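RECORD TYPE: inverse folding
INPUT: C-alpha cells
STRUCTURE:
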C-alpha cells in the first residue's frame, strides 16, 4: 500500500477529520502533511480526534435570540431583492411559454389548390 492509501484508511478509521474539512477549519492537504510527517501518532492527532463534550454542549445551548438577530443583521437585503426579482422574471418567462402553447388555436393546414393563383 502506498502512503496515500494508508492515509485514506486512517481517515476511514477516524471520520471526525471530515468534520474539520467540511467546517473549513482545516484542509486535506494539511492533514496529509501531518500524516506524512508523524504518521498515526496519537499525541499529534489528539486535538482533532478528541471531541470535548463541554464544547459541543456549549455551542448547542448558546444559540439564542441574539445570535438570530445578528444573523439577520448580516443579510444583504439588496442581494435578496435582486434574487427575488430575477426569480420573478424566470417564472414570468416560464409562464409565458406555457400560456402561449395553451392559447394557440389549432389551425389545420389546408393546401392551396394547384391551379389557383393569387386568390383567383
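DESIGNED SEQUENCE:
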Amino acid at each position: 500500500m502506498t502512503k496515500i492509501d494508508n492515509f485514506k484508511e486512517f481517515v476511514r478509521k477516524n471520520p471526525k477529520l471530515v468534520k474539520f474539512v467540511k467546517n473549513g477549519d482545516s484542509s486535506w492537504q494539511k492533514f496529509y502533511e501531518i500524516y506524512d510527517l508523524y504518521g498515526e501518532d496519537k499525541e499529534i492527532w489528539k486535538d482533532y480526534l478528541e471531541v470535548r463534550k463541554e464544547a459541543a454542549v456549549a455551542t448547542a445551548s448558546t444559540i439564542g435570540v441574539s445570535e438570530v438577530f445578528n444573523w439577520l443583521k448580516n443579510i444583504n437585503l439588496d442581494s435578496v431583492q435582486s434574487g427575488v426579482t430575477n426569480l420573478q422574471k424566470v417564472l414570468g418567462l416560464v409562464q409565458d411559454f406555457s400560456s402561449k402553447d395553451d392559447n394557440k388555436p389549432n389551425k389545420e393546414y389546408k393546401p392551396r389548390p394547384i391551379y389557383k393563383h393569387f386568390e383567383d
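NOTES: The two ends are 89 Å apart (CA to CA).
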